[in-house]
Structures are given as C-alpha cells and as structure tokens.
Design goal:
CATH topology of the largest domain: Immunoglobulin-like
Structural class: mainly beta
CATH class of the largest domain: Mainly Beta
Number of domains: 3
Radius of gyration: 38 Å
Number of helices: 3
Strand content: over 45%
Length: 376
Amino acid sequence: MVGALFAVGAALAPAALASGGVTISTSFENDPISLDTSDAVGYAISNTTGSSQVVYFTDTLPAGVTLDNPVAATNTPGSGTCTLSTPTAQPGDSSIAVQVSVPSGSGTICTISYSVVANTPSVSDIAGHDSYSNVRTDSGVTPNTASGSLVVLSDPTLSFTAPSNGSSFALGQLAYASFDCSPTDPLDVIDGFYGTDDEGNQIESGAPIDTLDPGTRTLEVECYSAAGGGFVSQTSSYTVGSYTLSAVRVRRKTDGVSFRTTIPAGKLVARLIYGRKVIGARSLSPTSGSTVAVALKPTKAGMRLLGALRARRVAVSLQVTFTPQAIGTGDQQITPAGATVVTRNVTLPISHRAVKHARRSRRIGTAKRVRTRRSA
C-alpha cells in the first residue's frame, strides 16, 4: 500500500514554517484500519533553512503496528526532490531509522512513506501515536516533529456452521450453506460477506451448496470490514459421492444388459459399446431422486455386428452417463460442471438370435448382388 501516495504539500504547523527550520510530520494513509491489514505511514518533510539539509530521525510506530514485508520505501517529490538513503529496518520491526537529504524550498519538499501492518487492535479504540527520537540534521538544526495517530480495529466475528468440515453428501442431495458475520468493534460495520466454492459459484447463506459434482468440494466464506478495510475468512471441505451401478446382469434371451442405480433428478444415458461403435442405447430423465432399473439391448444393426463375429461371447462396455439437474434459482442456481460417466465391462453371450440376424443380413446382401448382376 506504500504506492498509494499521501497528499504532497499537506498542511504543516505555521509556527514551524515561520521559524525557518526543518519539520517532519507523520500521517497514516488510512485511519482506522483492520487487524492484519496493510497500510502506509508517510513522513512529510519541509526545509525552509535556505540550504540543503541531511535529516536523520528514528520513528517508533504506534503499539501493535510494525513494518510490512517487504520494507518498501516510496520517495514522492513535492516542491523539491529528496535523496533517501537505505533505511536500517527489517520486516516486523516496530521502528525505522531514516536518513534523507532535503533541499531547501517552500511547503512540503517530499514525502517518504513505508508499508506497515497492524498486528494488535487498539485498546478501547484509543488511537496510538508514533514517537520520534534521534532527530537531527548534519548542520546542527533541530527539526520539529508532529506525530500521527492510528486506530486498529478488532476483526469481525465469522460464524460458519454449514457445511461442516469433513461432511459428506449424496450426489444431488439438497444441502444449504449457513454462515453469519458481525462486527466486534464499535467503530466497525460489515461491508459484506459471502461464500465462494471451488467451481467459482458465489454462495449466500441459506442457498444450496454444490452437490452436483462428485469428489472433494470446498466453500470459502469471507467477511469484509467497511471501516477498517480488512477481512476474515474460513474454508470448509466436504465430499460429494457419485452414483454407482448395482445388479448388473446379462440378459441371455435378449442379448441385453440390465442394472439399477440411485440418482437425483437429471438425465441418464446408457450405452453398449463394442470397440468404438455404439450397438445399443437407452435414456431416461427422472424428475426426482429415485432408484431406477434400466435395461438395454443391441439394436438390429448391433445384433448383426455381434452375430457376424461368429463367437460365443464378446466383451462390450456398459457406459452410463448422468447429468444432474441444476439446483437453486436465480443467481444462486448451481449447474453441474459436467456429466459423470461410469463404465463397466461385461461379457455378452452371442445368442442364436444374433446369429440369425447376421445370417439373414448376409442372405439379403447376396440376393441383392445376384439381382444386380442379372439386371446388368
């Protein structure tokens, strides 16, 4: 936040300007600020001595405020340009020693600023002040100093009750987020709070969470302070199960396959696949959660393909694709990231029915070729 500049040429004490000396005045970019929030402290320097001065000072920051990481310094020209030496300070230090060469001129010559962070809230919201020491110039002029003040606010309280961390849900199960945020500091108000899940959905308290995508899901809730600019957050992880296929059976009389599965509302498509060819398909769209029984068999073309293999059994894939129906409404509606696919390998016996289809197909093909030759 050091890059956010202070007003160059901030008002300085008239007495200090009239005396013809050097003045250092502290100001904080934002006041108040929240706990664990970065801010910037600036030192506006004037020099009306008529000659350039090398100014030295050490500033101890208000209680609970330290230098941020990195210790970045910004030298912003005012009516002149200062030359800043490298400060002797480290991240986490509560004070900083400054050496700066300041030309003579009117008003604020330059403003030197550093990034700071609040680590401890102010007691009873009483402003803390910085304090100067070792203030001098190379010419013997003693600079005047004006301290700044800063209030550090306590963080808001975030209550995140659902989904609880580590909880589990069935695919498509309706479950709702529950969280709340309130200020703990009398000077603070809440700017807003909301949740964001790992799919990028923004979830309000009371709205459904994402149970449409199997696997581990996360929901992060953030609560923002309007007065201090900070925020607090909590994250909960939960697991969403997938659907499974049960009672998978081969129907010998129909050369088909059947199975059962429990799914929510949505669309299910089952396919029998040999190699890369779909030899049978079945679809259904339940409107509510239920256990469904699905049976599918090869199409006539599929029967001809299997019969032509002249084998007693053939390995095929049972591929089931399910897309859950969206849950929620309006801007709180959640749609699945994609379909969930479950595949099972099954061995399909080649029945006499399939062989007959293949033989009939060959006979028809032979007859067509004979008719074609005769007509020619």
